[in-house]
Amino acid sequence: MDTEFSDTRHSFFDDAQGLLVGTLLVALSVQLLGSAMLTTGQIAGLSLVLSYASGLRFGLLFFVLNLPFYWLAFRRMGTAFTLKTFAAVGLLSLFTELLPNLLIFQTVHPLAGAILAGVAAGAGLLVLFRHGASLGGIGIVAFWMQETRRIRAGWVQLGFDAFVFALALWVMDPVTVLYSLAGAMVTNIIIATNHRRDRYIAR
């Protein structure tokens, strides 16, 4: 049930490297956030908050929380988008489990960590969007809203982020939440200004 949203401009190799690069950039973002005990928006942020509160691993929470959104992806965005998104979520879950064993940040200033994580996540999400994928959850909703309602993906995600940061106040101090919010704003600004059909997305 592929739809007009499926992108046939890329070869299998193009999409494979795009998913790898995009998820690695976002995994690096998660590593920076975790090292500074920060959070972010979307399902990744919700997974981080729940991880801090429960002690469960981020990768497991992220994978499970994304499961309900695949039905929307399949019905509204098509088979190709759903499979790519499922692969991207699986890769990110795997990379966030492996990366702490390979890369350790000993000192991360919260504001610097938030901004750098925001840039890495924004770049990674753009790569995934350009290859017809997302990181599931609100990313699926945001991608669909932009493609069908012309509502920018960044603004859709920003609305959900408000909920995540309100929840974060229960387990994090307000200053840390503010630093985290700065990073999430960087991510959403990058997506809102760069993932635009009228400027950059050619069909």
TrEMBL record:
User: Carries keyword Cell membrane?
Assistant: yes
What does UniProt give as GO cellular component? plasma membrane
**Which residues span the membrane?**
19-38, 50-73, 85-105, 151-171, 177-194
| Primary location | membrane
Has UniProt tagged this entry with the keyword Cell membrane?
yes
Its placement in the membrane is given as: Multi-pass membrane protein
Q: What is this protein called?
A: Putative 5xTM membrane YitT family protein
Q: Which key words tag this protein in UniProt?
A: Cell membrane, Membrane, Transmembrane, Transmembrane helix
State where the protein is found.
Answer: Cell membrane
Q: Which organism is it from?
A: Rhodovulum imhoffii
Looking up Pfam families in the UniProt record yields: YitT_membrane
